[in-house]
Automatic annotation (TrEMBL):
It comes from the Eukaryota. Residues 43-172 form the GST C-terminal domain. GO terms for biological process: glutathione metabolic process; xenobiotic metabolic process. This is glutathione transferase. Belongs to the GST superfamily. Alpha family. InterPro entries: Glutathione-S-Trfase_C-like, Glutathione-S-Trfase_C_sf, GST_C, GST_superfamily.
Length: 185
């Protein structure tokens, strides 16, 4: 591969965040190209379908094709936000994390699949860190997930991605939610 691949997406986590994670874990440096989000009375720039795109030399790979971008699936109205949050944390704590905890305990290896880093490990770490942004003590009853998080976070390429100033995107700010809702609704 000559030159850095270019990632095209809006300047936020969204569907491209996992791709950024995987490329970072593989040690692939990329150029980020962000779509600009803006709206006006007569038009909406970048509406209907979002495309996650990786461009390398003269080839373009549409990672997930055209995706109807439903912002209401991601952000809840203020009156439903608390219930949605409680539901998400309940599912993480009582359904998903217990399964991963058991897999790590029964497997006895450092990784979810086999004995080397895989996409599953990267995506589980991403999920854990996002859950901790919402509820910092969410792993309190999951010692194997705590060890997993520490181990995977210390892989040099992932550790670099987790540092401030990396290509990892921050959580969406509350003040941006209203703007996104206006553009995509």
């Amino acid at each position: 591969m000559s030159g850095k691949p270019k990632l095209h997406y809006f300047n936020g986590r969204g569907r491209m965040e996992t791709i950024r994670w995987l490329l970072a874990a593989a040690g692939v440096e990329v150029c980020l190209w962000s779509f600009i989000l803006r709206s006006c009375d007569q038009c909406v720039f970048l509406l209907f379908c979002m495309r996650s795109v990786i461009e390398q030399q003269f080839q373009t790979l549409h990672l997930v094709g055209s995706i109807p971008f439903r912002i209401d699936m991601c952000y809840q109205p203020a009156d439903k936000k608390e219930q949605h949050f409680a539901n998400m944390m309940d599912k993480a704590t009582n359904r998903y994390f217990p399964v991963f905890e058991k897999v790590l305990k029964d497997h006895g290896k450092d990784f979810l699949v086999g004995n080397q880093l895989s996409r599953a490990d990267v995506q589980l770490l991403e999920l854990i860190l996002m859950a901790e942004e919402c509820k910092p003590d969410i792993l309190a009853q999951f010692p194997h997930l705590q060890s997993f998080k520490a181990r995977i976070s210390n892989i040099p390429t992932i550790k670099k991605f987790l540092q401030p100033g990396s290509q990892r995107k921050p959580p969406v700010r509350e003040e941006d939610v209203a703007k996104l809702m206006k553009i995509f609704h």
